[in-house]
Amino acid sequence: MLVEKIIYTNPLMQPTDISNWKAEGEIKVTFEEGLILENGAPEELGDYAHFTYWLPEKFPSNIKIKWEFLPIREPGLCMTFFSALGKNKESIFDPQLNKRNGYYPQYHSGDINAYHISYFRHKYPSELAFRTCNLRKSSGFHFITQGGDPLPPAEDALDFYEIQIEKYGGKISFSINNLLIFEWQDDGEAFGPVLEEGFIGFRQMAPMKAKYRNLVISELMDGGE
């Protein structure tokens, strides 16, 4: 039986809650009953207008990440990175790593490794026509698995949705409002070794505007029978 120990909580309600978060790309940040994120760079920059926002600390391998999410404006896409480290297991903020500015190939085929889950994939016509949540593993941009996305268009969202990622022993599960979207066991062979401890980051594709609150991260441990 797994037990969990809360190791990080953040209501995401005021500037001091994110004062030490690390921005890559230009981000416009506001607060209104939660943290509101949107691109600070002009949308005309295309793929260079997107951004990633990292928590500044490294988290253990076996974790549960839970937060509340509300889409405000689309088109766009939201993503979460976890177990992120440099290829030699250095910090993602190591100055010897290539500088990142929110351009996606820097994350999926650059000099960092991470799992990443994309949800609210409402950016391109193909994503609007058939909506899924996707799990990938990098470096290498390996597509792993996907499940149907239950999140509605922004105009139909009435309240926050609870997003949850669990990772234990290489098994990853993703759910929204307690509805399991997918789960997958990393065998440590097909796409390289299982990624263990690392950093967590949130990414948005312009011109997405979304609100976040009540971020809780727990370490998962074997509690015995």
Descriptive keywords:
225 residues, DUF1961, eight-stranded antiparallel β-sheet, ConA-like_dom_sf, seven-stranded antiparallel β-sheet, DUF1961 family protein, mainly beta, 15 strands, single chain, Jelly Rolls
Walk me through the structure.
Pfam families: DUF1961. InterPro entries: ConA-like_dom_sf, DUF1961. The chain has two helices and 15 strands. The model has no long low-confidence stretch (mean pLDDT 97). It has 225 residues and is mainly beta. It is 4% helix and 51% strand. It has one domain (2-222): Sandwich (Jelly Rolls). A hairpin with a 2-residue loop joins β11 and β12 (171-176).
Helix and strand arrangement:
Blueprint lengths: L1 E9 L11 E3 L2 E5 L3 E5 L11 E4 L8 E11 L2 E11 L18 H4 L3 E11 L2 H5 L2 E7 L3 E7 L12 E8 L2 E6 L2 E7 L13 E7 L3 E14 L3
Antiparallel strand pairs: 1-15, 2-5, 3-4, 4-15, 5-14, 6-11, 6-15, 7-8, 7-14, 8-9, 9-10, 11-12, 12-13
Tell me the strand percentage band.
over 45%
Structural Rg: 16 Å
Dominant shape: globular
Mean model confidence by pLDDT: 97
CATH architecture call: Sandwich
What percent of the residues sit in helical stretches (DSSP H or I)? under 10%
What class, by secondary structure content? mainly beta
The number of helical runs is 2
Order of helices and strands: EEEEEEEHEHEEEEEEE
CATH top-level class: Mainly Beta
* Major sheet: 8 strands, antiparallel
In terms of per-residue confidence, which ranges show pLDDT below 50 for 5 or more consecutive residues?
A: none
Number of strands: 15
N- to C-terminal distance: 6 Å
Question: What is the CATH T-level topology?
Answer: Jelly Rolls
Number of discrete domains? 1
